[in-house]
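The methods section describes the discrete structure representation at length, but only in general terms. The central task, working out the structure tokens from the amino acid sequence alone, is never made concrete. Nothing conveys this as quickly as seeing an actual entry. For illustration, here is how one protein appears when written out as sequence plus structure tokens:
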Amino acid sequence: MSMFSNKEKTQKTKVMEINVVAKNTTINGDIISEGDFRIDGTLEGNIKTKGRVIIGIDGSVKGKIDAVNSDIEGKFSGELLVQETLTIKATATISGDVIIGKLSVEPGATFNASCSMKGAIKELVPVSYTHLTLPTKRIV
């Protein structure tokens, strides 16, 4: 009997994909990706990813972002949907509509957006009137 096992490891390794829109680059259109995105140039359009979207200090996005997490240092204008955490750095300028799970804002950031947090609205539970005790005396 051997001391070492010949069994293969069956762990699935997650490949980290980082896509970059470089400085002095402009993209007009929509992007759909499974990996993370860093934007140091300009994007006019929509981006949807199962990863993180980072807008660098020189980056600018006008359109819609739909991501799990996002860090913004540059400019964003449009609709921002972040399932988990949106981190807004001191150099960021954001305008539009924002729907997030959690929010982190550094002092100095410009945040001119309507913002709603998922899970912030509690479910209303209907009141059952069968358990209420009503007064039996008649007050005149």
